[in-house]
Every structure is written in structure tokens, then in C-alpha cells.
Amino acid sequence: MAQSTASIPIPATHMSVELPTTLGLDLSDRQAHFHVQQGDGRTLTTGKVAMERDDLAKLFAHWKGCRLVIEAGCHSPWVSRLGHECGLEVMVANPRQIELITKSDRKTDPADAKALADLGRSNPKLLAPIAHRTREAQAHLAVQRARNEAVRNRTGMINHVRGVLKSHGHRAPSVSPECFGRRAAASIPPDLTAALQPMLKLIEAVNTQIKSYDKEIVRLGSEQYPVVHLLQRIAGVGPIVSLCFVLTLEDPRRFEGGRDVGAFVGLVPRKKSSGKSDPQLHITKAGDRELRRLLVLAANYILGRFGPDCDLRRFGMRIIGSGTDKTAKKRARVAVARKLAVLMHHLWRTGEVYDPFYMAKKRGEPLPA
Predict the structure, then answer these.
(1) How far, in Å, CA of 341 to CA of 245, rounded?
(2) Would you tell me which CATH number, out of the four given (3.40.50.2300, 3.60.160.10, 3.40.50.150, 3.30.420.40), belongs to the domain 19-127?
(3) Residue 306 and residue 128: Cα distance in Å, rounded?
(4) Spatial distance between the Cα atoms of 200 and 73, rounded to a whole number of angstroms
(5) Which residues have CB under 8 Å from 115's CB, separation 6+?
(6) Rounded to whole angstroms, how far apart are CA atoms 367 and 369?
(7) Predicted pLDDT at 323
(8) Which residues have C-beta within 8 Å of that of residue 346, sequence separation ≥ 6?
(9) What local confidence, expressed as pLDDT, does residue 190 receive?
(10) Which of 45, 79, 191, 237 measures 20 to 30 Å from 345, CA to CA?
């Protein structure tokens, strides 16, 4: 005879858990839609609020102690900090992990807010929550981002001058961007002076501003983040790369192991294995795009003609092999960039001094004279 279910005690692990009241907030440029759910999933209220600090602070103060769920984006850093200040438990969802919102066939702002509330209330791990950097780190990183924008605009203006000269049968000198404004003036014919001379003055002004940004980046590293000097011992890692690495990771202890850093910057291959199928895929390109670009540039220098002999270079050269396969060279650059990120994290976390031939000594490989 079947035992009556009424006489079976319910284990403590199967008892219902009281879930928190959750505020799902879908951010946009002018206004945000919110959806508030009780722990049992019942909707308490919905609506929209202006994307202004005072208006959001009033909304957050009303729901103090609840869980706020937002999606990472342009406004999420300051909104998440405001939520913490107002006494909310803040979760910032990773857009790459919640495709049921980003790829929904019936996507609307109220529906997105409800989906965020549903996920944040029932299973927050599905949000793959991320941690935003501090206000100070974001302000310091803005200096480097501004420098990148100045360099990009300078490149565009130089290319414009070169193109106009070529279309009129002239050619600008092959010089560095820092010298282009002065050296190209002699190549401009009289009929193009009105069009290109002001452009050369703009290039010179941008060069001056880039130098100012460079000085500020060096100052920030020396005064605020002295660990950058430890990282700059690595070939190819200068003030820009080291400061961007430190400001993007912010805390080396947030990663359980060095390999997690490679995944954090999107330099590990994607996985899509099923059964016997396990194809080799491209890297995920997750995380900060600028840091990933700088790491690849540093790896390119290490593997280049002027790169010094070291463990990283030998590692990349083993992947390249004979040097005739372009795909192998690309793989080597990415692999060295990933290994570089792991190495920088290790040096930062442990405080050890960089030894360019640590692995070579360990393996008994020949060292340079």
C-alpha cells in the first residue's frame, strides 16, 4: 500500500523561501520603465520615471531595501551607484547572457522591465551580474578614452589631407603623426592653401592635446596607481596599457584564478560542443573592447621584428611555427595577448617582479647571452 504523503515530513531544504520584492528597471535615454514584483511574483506596480537623478532617487527611496535589477548600458554605472546610495540591493545584468530580452519577438520597454524583475526575483544567476567600476576609476578611465578619440580624429584629418593632395597630383611626406602638421605644409600648393592649411593647424592643436593627455595618464599611474610601474617592466606594456588594465579590472582579487582574466577580456574561444561535435570557434570578444585592443597591440609588438626575446615571444613563435600561415600568426597574437593578461594579473596580485625568462629557466631552455 502506498504511504500517505501527509505522514512524510518535508525536509528543510524543500521549504519555501521568501523571495525579495524586486524592482525591474529598463533604462533608456529620456525615461525608464519600471515593474515591481512581490516575492510571490504578484505585480505591485508599474510605470515610468524620468532619467533624472532626483526622480530616480525618489523612486528608489520609496522601495528602499528591495532588489533593483537593471541592464548594463550607458546609464547603468551612475544608476547602480545611485541605487546603492538609496539602500537598494543592485544587480546589473549582462546583456550577453539574457537573450530572452535582447532577442524577444515582442520587445517593449515595459516587457523588458517585467522580464528583469522576473529574473532578478526568481533566479539572479541567470542575469550573470556584473560589477561596475567606481566613480573615481570611471573618471580616470575617461581620460584615456578622450585620448583615444583625439587620436582617432587626428588620423581622420591626416588621411583627409593626404587624400586631397593625391587627388590633385601631390603627395604628403611619410612622417609620424606628431610631425605631420609641420612637415606637410611645404607640400600644399597655393590653390589648396585655403582648404588644407586650417586643417594642419587643427592637427597641431590635437597633437598638443594628445601630449597633455599622455602627461595626465603618466601622472595618474604614478600618483594613484603605482602598481602600473610593476606591470610596465613587461615588453610592450607602457603607461596606457598598464593604466587601462588596472582601471578595468580595478581589484585583482575579484578573479579566482588568472585564467578567468582571459575570459573577462574576451580572449578565450567560444564553446559550442554537442555530442561528438566540438568545433574550433572565434574568441568571445566579451568584456572591455579597448583593453582587448591594447592587449593585442602589445602582443603584436612582442611578436614583431623589434620585440625582445622573452617567454611570451617564444610562446607565440611556437604557435606561428614556420611563419607562412597567416591564420597561425593571428592565433599567436590572441594567445600571447591572453597570456599577457594572465601574467599582468599575477604580477599585480602577488607583487612579484617580472622575470622575462621565468618559464625558460624552469624548462632548462637556453637563455640569451
Answers:
(1) 8
(2) 3.30.420.40
(3) 41
(4) 37
(5) 24, 98, 100, 101, 104
(6) 6
(7) 64
(8) 258, 352
(9) 94
(10) 79
Residue whose C-alpha cell reads 575579484 in the numeric block: 254
Type of residue found at 168? H
Closest CA to 303 of 266, 328, 268, 269: 328
Reduced to 3 states (helix: H, G, I; strand: E, B; else coil), residue 162 is helix
C-alpha cell at 270: 567560444
pLDDT, position 107: 81
Query: pLDDT band at 17, cuts 50/70/90?
Result: low
**Angle, alpha carbons 44-45-51 (nearest 5°):** 140
Q: Containing H/E element for 334?
A: helix 326-350
Cα-Cα-Cα-Cα dihedral of 11, 16, 18, 19, to 10°?
120
Grid cell 526575483 is found at 121
C-alpha cell at 257: 584564478
Residue 165 Cα to chain centre, angstroms: 38
Q: Are 261 and 244 in contact (CB under 8 A)?
A: no
Higher pLDDT, 323 or 47: 47
Distance separating alpha carbons of residues 366 and 369, to the nearest angstrom: 9
Are 154 and 210 in contact, with CB atoms under 8 Å apart? yes
C-alpha to C-alpha distances, 16 to 19, 23, 51, 191, nearest whole angstrom: 9, 21, 37, 82
Residue 362 pLDDT level (bands cut at 50, 70, 90): very high
- The 3-state DSSP composition of the chain as helix, strand, coil percent (nearest 5) reads 55, 10, 35
For the record, the C-alpha cell of 289 comes out as 573592447
Q: Summarize pLDDT for 168-177 with one digit per residue, the tens.
A: 999 999 999 9
Q: What distance in Å separates the CA atoms of residue 119 and residue 113, rounded to the nearest whole number?
A: 10
Q: Closest by alpha carbon to 340, among 239, 257, 268, 234?
A: 234
Between CA 97 and CA 99 the distance in angstroms is: 6
**Grid coordinates standing for 300?**
603584436
pLDDT reading at 7 higher than 70: no
- Reported as a single tens digit per residue, the pLDDT across 292-313 is 999 999 999 999 999 999 999 9
Amino acid identity of 111?
A
**Which residues have a Cβ under 8 Å from the Cβ of 218 and sit 6 or more positions away?**
239
Residues 115-139: tens digit of each pLDDT: 999 999 988 888 888 888 899 999 9
